[in-house]
Amino acid sequence: VVATTDSLVEGVHFRLDLCSARDVGFKAASTNLSDLAAMGSRPLTLLANLCLPGGREESLAIGITTGIRDACRRFGVGVSGGNLSASPGPVMVAVTALGEGLGDRFLTRSGARPGDDIWISGPVGDAALGLKLLSDHPGLARRFASLATAYRRPVARVELGLRLRETPGVTAAIDVSDGLVADLCHVLEASGVGAVLDLDAVPISCVARRFASVVGADLRATALCGGEDYHLLVCARPDVRAGVEFLGLERIGRVTARKGLKIPGIRGGLPRGYRHFT
Amino acid sequence: VVATTDSLVEGVHFRLDLCSARDVGFKAASTNLSDLAAMGSRPLTLLANLCLPGGREESLAIGITTGIRDACRRFGVGVSGGNLSASPGPVMVAVTALGEGLGDRFLTRSGARPGDDIWISGPVGDAALGLKLLSDHPGLARRFASLATAYRRPVARVELGLRLRETPGVTAAIDVSDGLVADLCHVLEASGVGAVLDLDAVPISCVARRFASVVGADLRATALCGGEDYHLLVCARPDVRAGVEFLGLERIGRVTARKGLKIPGIRGGLPRGYRHFT
User: Fold this and answer.
1) Which of A158, A137, A157, A141 is nearest to A149 (CA)?
2) What is the DSSP string of B36-62?
3) Do A47 and B4 touch (CB under 8 A)?
């Protein structure tokens, strides 16, 4: 059995004026299932731990557990139990996900080798723009509803993780939770390698482009540094390109022996994504 | 695999002026291991999820994880991982414990039958008096150090749980976290039975008696309603008395077909132990 745990804290990871308690539950489940997906583990069950302020506890508990069940139904997982506690502080949801043991074949962050291709399973930046939409431009929320959904109801790429695990030549994987650059750097550091990223190849959705042009958001920075899309970032040997492409991934760079991340067209530093403590 | 999860929240379950971060970590691990013990499951590993306010996060994280490791070493368990998040609110520790699968033989709350004996694995009230000692009588803390330890470093009865699971005729078990009366009532409700409790047979430690007499605490109410001792409360058929006694348990009552809990010598209502939301 493989286990992973993650928490969402009100005021840090979510605001209840921008999403419902049910969304929070969905996201808390999704982020943990996404961690399992990045290892190539089939999820078995979830345990949820809720710490809720008194007075609102009933509606919050119902909303959050309903959202967790939504996610479990969608990704074919059973909820096995949980715990509810009072708290004087913010709403907190800690979820632990258990997945099938992986035997001798599983995906890690540390297997990338020079010459590998770098792949991503879908467009990045939608969730970060969804947050911007909801907090700064609520009047546009209906027009750009898919961005709001990307932020509120992120998809764990469970099936894709299982397929990648079975694909020979896949050397490393991670889910993009902190941001493309931040999570790629996690892989590079764990693998002791560097990379060159092809900025023009990084997929960005049409709706993200439209929204960014309407509100004047920095699309490139958002795509590189916005988190919470939960796409899988994958490294694979160049001789398995056809197989990885067949799974719908897009090639966005290559691994180099020389350490550090190079992004031609970008000068100077980039923010490295969300950091809890500075 | 069996899994259980529980959380400790600052201001609800602990105060950092009454115990150290290391104590909090120890207790967070112990309470979860105690849940496994009450099922008769051998613990395999723990995952910890910490939500910590910025500024104090480093010393808190080190203290709490050291305490978790203390408990894991003591009870022979490996820590497998965890997650650290910032929080604007109180310190929160959520632990998930994984234990060995139980096959067809395991302990539940729901198996008690009329005629069963009720047993407890040790004295109750020490932890609650320890809390009273630390909060109301800190000047006496050295003299009654074992009460403070009972409160700060509760023992999960892991080995006893495994032995009880192997003992035929044991019909139900629970760990006393909320209080003797509260947790006994959980068993009675789950089993659809009642009980008569023998107040004089309920074990109370000598140090608890001395402390209660010095400060004028209500010893009986504390023994019945004080939580966090994490002793195992067990029901077993009367024909296996010798076997259960051999494990060091003390007999404190019997299960009845008539529902409800009777405690001869106690009139009127008793507080039913800690409740998170009222």
Assistant:
1) A141
2) HHHHTPPEEEEEEEEEE-TTSHHHHHH
3) yes
CB contact under 8 A, B82 and A5: yes
Place of tokens 């470093």: B153
Distance (Å, rounded) from C-alpha A18 to C-alpha A146? 15
| Residues constituting chain A | 278
Torsion of CA B172, B178, B180, B182, to 10 degrees: -80
**Cα separations in angstroms, B275 against A47, A243, B143, B179, B192:** 22, 56, 31, 11, 22
At B79, phi and psi to the nearest 5? -90, 130
Query: Could you tell me if A97 and B81 are in contact, meaning their C-beta atoms sit under 8 angstroms apart?
Result: no
Q: Which residue has the tokens 């920095």?
A: A218
CB contact under 8 A, B86 and A276: yes
The answer to whether A20 faces chain B, any CB pair under 8 Å, is: no
Q: Which helix (H) or strand (E) holds A13?
A: none
Question: Cα(A234)–Cα(A119) distance, rounded to whole angstroms?
Answer: 5
pLDDT tens figures, A125-183: 999 999 999 999 999 999 999 999 999 999 999 999 999 999 999 999 999 999 999 99
* B120-152: pLDDT as tens digits: 999 999 999 999 999 999 999 999 999 999 999
Kindly state the tokens that stand for A262.
Answer: 């190079």
Q: How many helices (H) and strands (E) does chain B have?
A: 9, 10
Residue % of chain A over a pLDDT of 70: 96
> Which residue in B7, B57, B92 is closest to A83 by CB distance?
B7
**Interface residue B268 vs chain A (CB under 8 A):** no
CA distance B261 to chain A (A): 26
Q: Which two tokens stand for residue A157?
A: 């790429």
Residue whose pair of structure tokens reads 């023009």 in the numeric block: A200
Q: What is the pTM of this model?
A: 0.83
Tell me the mean pLDDT in the region B109-116. Answer: 97
CA neighbor of B71 nearest in space, from B108, B103, B33: B33
